[in-house]
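Key idea: predict the complex, not the pieces.
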Amino acid sequence: MGTSVKDVAALAGVSASTVSNYFNRPELVGSANRKRVADAIAELGYVPNESARQLRAGSSKTLALILLDAWLPFFSDLSRGVEDAVRDHGWSLFFSNSNRDPARELSNLDMFEAHRVQGLVIVPQGLIKERLEKLQNRGIECVVVGPTQDSNQISAVTFDDVGGGRLAGEHLLEIGRRRLAFLGNPHNVVQSADRLAGMTQAVEASGTDTTVMTITVKNLTVEDGIEAAEQILSMPEAERPDAIFAANDMVAVGALNVFLRAGISIPEDIAVVGYDDVQYARQAAVPLTTVRQPAYEMGRAAGQQLLEQIERPGNREVQNRLFGAHLVVRDSTIGHVPARTESDQTSHAASRTFEENPALPA
Amino acid sequence: MGTSVKDVAALAGVSASTVSNYFNRPELVGSANRKRVADAIAELGYVPNESARQLRAGSSKTLALILLDAWLPFFSDLSRGVEDAVRDHGWSLFFSNSNRDPARELSNLDMFEAHRVQGLVIVPQGLIKERLEKLQNRGIECVVVGPTQDSNQISAVTFDDVGGGRLAGEHLLEIGRRRLAFLGNPHNVVQSADRLAGMTQAVEASGTDTTVMTITVKNLTVEDGIEAAEQILSMPEAERPDAIFAANDMVAVGALNVFLRAGISIPEDIAVVGYDDVQYARQAAVPLTTVRQPAYEMGRAAGQQLLEQIERPGNREVQNRLFGAHLVVRDSTIGHVPARTESDQTSHAASRTFEENPALPA
DNA sequence: TGACGTAGTTGCAACGTTACATAAAGAGTA
DNA sequence: TACTCTTTATGTAACGTTGCAACTACGTCA
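Result:
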């Protein structure tokens, strides 16, 4: 059954300590024994028991990532970022998703605490500030991606959602739209509320006579976008919005497809703006204007922040890394892209880019 | 730092054994002590050290899932199926993805072996038959999803890809198409080869004068579908196919969007058939006819199979569960759905369903 | 020659948990 | 009273690993 260090030692004709040294301080092992141990390991197919090592060492190079909805493209990109950031430094990463279920989120936290991971990145669902602070006090470092949970003890990677909403609003106003609709769940999700607030700010600042209606969707899936679009189509034509701003690209794509099938011209009749700039935005039937949220980079930043915290214990310096919003203009708001601007590309300022022929791969 | 069973025991005024019994054989603990222990646990926020338990017990209720491409919708559905199957029985599940990189696949296997998981479900990339058989001999049960790796030692959950390809081919022939194109990577991936083989069989059986061309795509992403479609558009009009069969829905959706933007009518000019029937197929700009592969159910089946193997050790009965193909007809091949048929719904026969107004949510 | 240094090797204890054997305290019975 | 039986509690050893102190062997140098 379990081949252990002793079996390897016996076969190689050395002591268990030497086998351990072979792994942990190879410079202490003479070349003859080094070879013998290597051969024995290969012959037995020995793989060290991580539990025992962890028990002895008190810790292991293991981190965890808890996502809201692993199957949304945004989170896939995010997780790749985290993974890449920590893999380079030799850490193992365990995934899990809370499936937007607060109970599951807590049980995943328990599981990872039982496994004594050294740190975790979490995209939180519930209000778990206390739980996370307790974890940190027990030596499990945490980094939150998303709203900061009002803790001054936990590092976070956040995005300027108000700025993103404002960019979207300004853009729609600029192309002459005056009946705006927001598709999201601003009552339950802080991010949605911020995006809506940003758009509303833009409207107020414009001094124009512009209305903003809100259509509540549940989960930010394509399905929800379809439902919302049908709700819009069922309105008398005079009351329909001339532009929608969706809380993410999935909702936007769903709505877009319904509009197209109903014979509505995009963007002439209804302009559509999404959020996130996931792959599907660029690849939609009408390429989507959207607020770019750099999921991969945010994941990388979270992973790096986590490693920094782990590697300097005692240093309780809380970082709060803010990513800036950036608008990517495509055909769903400006049918024929008019001109190109060299825009501000720094990630900390709200900015804008035009993409021509965006359906083509780069 | 680490609160242990001893701290709890000290606070509760009992021995460490009693605390252990509290968790593992509560019927042995008297009600007075039971309460005292419970209080102490709550006060200290004690969470048992899984590594130590695992070291002592020799195993833990932990399983692993290794995916090819966690961010493809098909795999998301699959993983939810596995997760649901094992969660009900109290098992923890660790995810990881190999990102279609054979080296990463192997390193993930090492990691899970080091953590002494009791079993794993894997969607394999490389030819890792030997590695998996070795794992089984060391007591880590394996279930493969996908081609059986020609092992008579490892259980598998497979799908009738030849049958799926045949269904697609028959359907396209039936609606009068005679210039078929297959979009996939049949040279590298067994599944793609089988799907193409199935379509070719259908063509040969039909006795019609029908051509089948193959356009090779790399990774089965939307991006690859876009590239392939552009390749088709660059062909002289007379040489273009009048139908395409894509190796998965992502490729089909990418191609579909390019065609639409180029002013090509779907399905009049080019009929499109996808594979998998993921969410996006139904939600595409033109809802997609596709071969349904029940990802969620296949994941569940794999999870259940794994649990069965673990729970009856010694029983080396290898199961090979085959899922049957099923065609879902939507607008991308028949613009106006003509009729409804009550078709064979069993999962083990190739069959067909018509969906009317498929863009609407159920 | 003896003291010292260095490279290589090893025995031992400990990490936190749990299964098992054993003990203690009543409770019931003859 | 002496015994058995039951219920509840505890001491001990072991799981596989590794850091440390201790030890050996072999040079080197005064």
